[in-house]
């Protein structure tokens, strides 16, 4: 967990009801990012601090918090995610925080989607995110895996 200096809480977003998050799933310390991923988007826009997030997902979702202590060996950072996601190394108990409509966090506008695809023609062909203009994040980050539950 090199570079990890976040005590938690750790969040997971899913369109499915869960009690246990399976090994190999994604977790994040950024609540708004987890909320957006609960809707299974193909595009996301993030502010530098991950506090402002918008997405193109359409499914209603569920926000979970990891319901047990997460230790140094329990998660590993996913390369290419600009420190926003970690992969679980074991099954973890989750507690439901909220049921989320697809519009929470806000949806990307058609204009924002068109602009993202213009800047990155591969946008939307993989799970990933594109930073907001002027942020310190890379233009795009390909995230491999499924964030499966």
Per-chain topology:
Layout (H helix, E strand, L loop, with lengths): L10 E4 L5 E2 L4 E2 L3 H7 L6 E3 L6 E3 L5 E6 L8 E3 L8 E3 L3 E9 L9 H10 L8 E4 L8 E3 L7
Parallel strand pairs: 4-10
Antiparallel strand pairs: 1-6, 2-9, 3-8, 4-5, 6-9, 7-8, 10-11
Main beta sheet? 4 strands, antiparallel
In the sheet with the most strands, the strands line up as 1-6-9-2
The count of domains is 1
Tell me the quaternary state.
single chain
Mean pLDDT: 81
> Would you report the number of β strands?
11
Rg calculated over all Cα atoms: 14 Å
Helix content: 10-25%
Strand content: 25-35%
Q: What's the helix-strand series?
A: EEEHEEEEEEHEE
For the terminal residues, how far apart are their CA atoms?
A: 21 Å
Low-confidence stretches: 128-149
The tally of helices reads: 2
Structural class: alpha+beta
Shape: globular
Q: What would you note in describing this structure?
A:
The protein is of the alpha+beta class. It has one domain. Helices cover 11% and strands 28% of the residues. The chain contains two helices and eleven strands; from the N terminus they run βββαββββββαββ. Strand 7 and strand 8 form a beta hairpin. It starts with 10 loop residues before the first strand and ends in a 7-residue tail after the last strand.
In short:
With 149 residues, the protein is an alpha+beta fold. It has helices at residues 31-37, 110-119; strands spanning 11-14, 20-21, 26-27, 44-46, 53-55, 61-66, 75-77, 86-88, 92-100, 128-131, 140-142. The chain has one domain (11-142).
